[in-house]
Amino acid sequence: MLDPRKLHLLRELAQRGTIAAVAEAANFTPSAVSQQLSALEREAGLPLLERTGRTVSLTPAAHVLVTHAHAVLEELERATAALAALSDGPGGPLRIGAFPSATRVLLPRALAELAAGHPALEPMVSEIDPADVSAALRAGELDVALVHEYDFVPPVVDLGICAEPLFEEPMYLTDRPSIRDARDDPWIMSKPGTLCHTMAIRACQAAGFEPHVRHHVDDFDTVLAFAAAGQGVALVPGLAAQAPPPGVRLTPLPLSRRTLVAYRKGYGRHPAILAAVAAFRSAVTR
Description:
It comes from Nonomuraea endophytica. It contains ten helices and ten strands. The protein is an alpha/beta fold.
């Protein structure tokens, strides 16, 4: 019989690309991961990995097995959630990931509601870029997360992750009537590799120019402070634009950012996840 733990490692290899990356995520040594995958090959009765020097790639049989691994691991998550539903109520650690503006604006309200309604829960919050959330959820480092997606940027969740919409907010441009009018300005953007940076670059490209990026800043409060100091223009979402510094004009754009709640597939009916999603929605409404 195929071992689900080994299937998890194979799925991670399909997602992460290298045994070293899988080992780091699973807190194993690379040799231990290789041994587990070799054992899975014996269980499957077919070669799963093609080794070329120090690199590995998945065989056609491995790709077939990864497809079934998604279903197997999802069903195990569903079983875990069903067992948890038989308890008196959600309790224990609840590891929540969120991007900074949601952490600042939404999570204090949501955490207060969780504390009042489910005192046995122990929420534990970590700030994380949405691009890293899927891997953290699959690895069990997070139970639930708030992620966002922008126009010009595709969704960041993968086949093992479920994401349900939470709310949508407009995007604003500082101190210019349109992105095209800011073609000659210096720009303030998030660090390369983040969704915010990708969105801003692509928005400028859609307006017909490559932006001159002067500052790389992730915190939107700091971005607005830099804009107030005349250090450049920036795109900011509605959550970050509620109280701009004096002198900063914000122009609404026909662009939006959508926030979603993400969790492992099959895990959505877990009482702790249901409680968290309800608290997030209440915080948005309030």
